[in-house]
Amino acid sequence: MQKKIHALIRLIRPKQWVKNIFVFTGVLFGEVHRMEETLLLALLAALSFCLISSAVYTFNDLIDKEQDKRHPKKKLRPLASGEVTNSEAALLIAALTTLSFTIGSIVSSLTLTLLVSYAFINILYTLYLKNVVILDVFCIASGFMLRILAGTAGIGIPPSKWLLLCGMMITLFLGFTKRKAEILQLKSAMREHRKVLMSYDSIFLDELIGITAASVIIAYSLYTMNDETIRIHHTENLIYTVPFVVFALFRYLYLINSKQSGGDPTNDLISDKQIMASVGLFTLLTFYLVH
After folding, report:
1. Among its keywords, does the record have Iron (predicted)?
2. Selected residue with higher pLDDT from 209 and 162
3. Which helix (H) or strand (E) holds 244?
């Protein structure tokens, strides 16, 4: 029983829940009038996205089970290795989805709509869109944008257009760097493990990565100097958080090109001390300046 529970926990990938930190964008940057109530709603929204993302991961592993068996690392996943059966995975998906939608409906009807949209897009991605060049990365980015919307409009915080643009660019950046890392790691086995990689090449991806990285820096810098931002937060000093963003982006690019990291952005962000320090200092300084 203990082994089965451990396998189920691995299947829902709790380490990936760190991605749901995007839900707290509104709490950190938005115009918040009742902090305690807003923070509670943000926590519930984040929990609902943790649950639905785990349901999506389980669905993805269920669909890709046979393909994963031929992958050097993915063959160890609970479904591919036989530790969890198909029927157990299906029940888990149903339970996680039901609980996620229930919690989301408590937060707001918009949050529930965003959760349903997230599930729908990811089903399409798993079944078809993951093999469509460029659109595959936009699907990944859309998941993060839905998290940002859930943590702003979903809990009653008007989202900044500059911040939404920045969020889109940084998620596209992470998506394209992930594809670059997969090409570097899989090399000749690309076709067998992820067909869409055959439509990418390193030069093209480097161009897309450069464009999105520059867009993140420009969009966030303009956000910090925007008149509306200054009015809401009563400070012109958010511009001093920009160096932390620039450093984290450059450090991540270094890891991809020198260390061949990037295949798992979540793991890279958690394991790299310099990126974590930069993110931590950025968060502390931002919170100090706006609250």
Report:
1. no
2. 209
3. helix 242-259
